[in-house]
Specification:
12% of the residues lie in helices and 36% in strands. The protein is mostly beta strands. The chain has one domain (4-109). The longest helix has 8 residues, at 27-34. The radius of gyration is 14 Å and the shape is globular. InterPro entries: DUF3846.
Length: 123
Amino acid sequence: MSRLIKAISIDPAKRTIEEVEIEANNLEVLYNHIGCTTIDFVCRMPNGDALIVDDEALLTQPQPPAFKFAYFQYPVHGIALVVGSRKSGRTIAPKLTLRNVRNLVKFLGDIHTEPIINVLSWD
């Protein structure tokens, strides 16, 4: 068992945003909380925070309810976790507060988003 950290859970189906405790760096815990089998870290912020999301949410039919996060250009479908990270890649508590996140989220409900692929070059 790894150590517990605070994270912020965004659930667009229930329209809730709340603090939760999760086991840091435990994929099974992340899968269970989000309700998926594949995750992705999106919306990496300069402060080290990011959203952990269901990587295959756009491939399900119907797609789960969505929300808009102010720092991310695309709708996010399904439950997401806001977490922080160390330079080593270890998951830690986010720097954003619950109040910050509540101000950054707009629930969109049942919408459909076409999947896209973005490729970034580091050259």
